[in-house]
Amino acid sequence: MTKQSVSPDMRQVQDVMRRAVRDEIAKKARLGQYVVINRDGKPCRIPAAEALLEIREEDSAYGQGRDLPPPGPGEGDTVRGQDRADG
């Protein structure tokens, strides 16, 4: 099997889709809503703020995320479902 490179057009499509998903998760985080994600092959409902933190961590690990919207009210208030003040 040969490795195929991703065309510039496909890369742009991927970037636009990634941005749209991040924007929607950021919107849900501002509204205090939940999102359903895949964890270990199973659906998992988590606060959107937590999902946004995970996205930011992944993007920073891969050198991406420069186009992420700034955190809004309520974003980052929870870490893994716990209040930050609780540790």
Verbal overview:
The chain has 87 residues and is an alpha+beta fold. It has a domain at 10-68. It has two helices and four strands; from the N terminus they run αββαββ. The strands form two sheets. A two-stranded antiparallel ribbon has the order 1-2. The longest helix has 23 residues, at 8-30. The radius of gyration is 15 Å and the shape is globular.
Brief synopsis:
By secondary structure, the chain is of the alpha+beta class. It is built from two helices and four strands; from the N terminus they run H-E-E-H-E-E.
Keyphrases for this structure?
2 helices, 43% helix, 18% strand, two-stranded antiparallel sheet
The tally of strands reads: 4
Uncertain parts: 75-87
The backbone outline, from C-alpha atoms, is globular
The helix fraction, in percent, is 40-55%
The run of helices and strands is HEEHEE
H/I helix tally:
2
Query: What is the SS-derived class?
Result: alpha+beta
Q: Biggest sheet: strands side by side, in what order?
A: 1-2
- What is the CA-based Rg, rounded? 15 Å
Strand coverage percent: 15-25%
* End-to-end Cα distance: 48 Å
Main sheet characteristics: 2 strands, antiparallel
